[in-house]
Amino acid sequence: MRVTQLLAGFAAIVSLASAAPTDSSRSQLAKRVKKFQWFGVNESGAEFGQTSIPGTYNKDYTFPSTSSIDTLMGKGLNIFRIPILMERIARGSMTSSLDATYLSQLTAVVNHITNAGGYAIVDPHNFGRYNGAIITSTANFQTFWKNVATAFKSNSKVIFDTNNEYHDMDESLVVSLNQAAINGIRSAGATSQYIFVEGNSYTGAWTWTTQNTAMASLTDPNNKIIYEMHQYLDSDGSGTSDQCVSSTIGSQRITDATTWLKNNGKKGILGEFAGGSNSVCESAVTGMVNYMAANTDVWTGGLWWGGGPWWGDYIFSMEPPSGTAYVNVLPSILPLI
Fold first, then answer.
1. Which among 336, 327, 261 has a CA at the least distance from the CA of 293?
2. What is the pLDDT of residues 109-128, one digit of tens each?
3. Angle between helices 279-293 and 249-264 (to 10 degrees)
4. Which pLDDT score, from 0 to 100, does residue 31 have?
5. Per-residue pLDDT tens for 135-177?
6. How many CA atoms lie within 13 A of 65 on its CB side?
7. Residues annotated catalytic, as ranges
8. Is the per-residue pLDDT at 24 higher than 50?
9. Which residues, at least 6 apart from 206, have a Cβ–Cβ distance to it below 8 Å?
10. CA 235 to chain centre
């Protein structure tokens, strides 16, 4: 998402320990997600407080609530994207050793998800930047990803997302950074995991064919690349309004990207999407999901933006039990996935 809410000062206590998943929760996963490979929610918190680096846990940033994730998994969702900050996990420079405390907190959430049979996406939510500057060193970026992948290489249900929403960068640099991430991950011995690659211009599906055509050149010796695109349905596609352009804008905004995926023999996922809790947006969102379901040869699924314990009354909150989208939108999506 383009604008991350900085919720420094809002303290919340999140327990990373919770009961082991039940057999019934696992059967829900198998029962619910039928049309897509994956469907789930972004789980924010660890990327908050971007002006406070490294920041204080549960003051500047937090980690997702595992009990909320359990609730969502009980509904049948099977994939969760965990945004983090590169500056917190690799402090001082991209090539630094990983911070043990932050990594431990991340690993606890990741393992909770994957032990329950779900997939966990590790998402450096940095917009192609480190300490505010555009990342230009592919070598350093490759080292960063080798270090991160090493920590999770034995867990095949971890997915590596190269970086959130590259933007205002040269397209060739974005392609090179994605390829460097792939190379770093595989050189760590992480060969069983999927890699989600993101494009320029906030990885928007609606601008993909004008901004990201060179992304088709990416290669992976393990052939597990998924093209992650984001799509919001407000007038400028930023996801800052709960008003959708029209009831059909969802499918319209991903049509060209669908054609690109088909023409290039690629598979994609909507790594972020959302719409307001109103009738126009409900039609737009369900129309988009139905369109994806009719094209599962290229669309593997989607993740709603967003969940997480600190969203409060955020317009797209998917946080149980009272988030706006959890109450009003999720019931209309579940039958479609």
1. 336
2. 999 999 999 999 999 999 99
3. 20
4. 55
5. 999 999 999 999 999 999 999 999 999 999 999 999 999 999 9
6. 17
7. 165, 272
8. no
9. 231, 237, 253, 254, 256, 257
10. 22
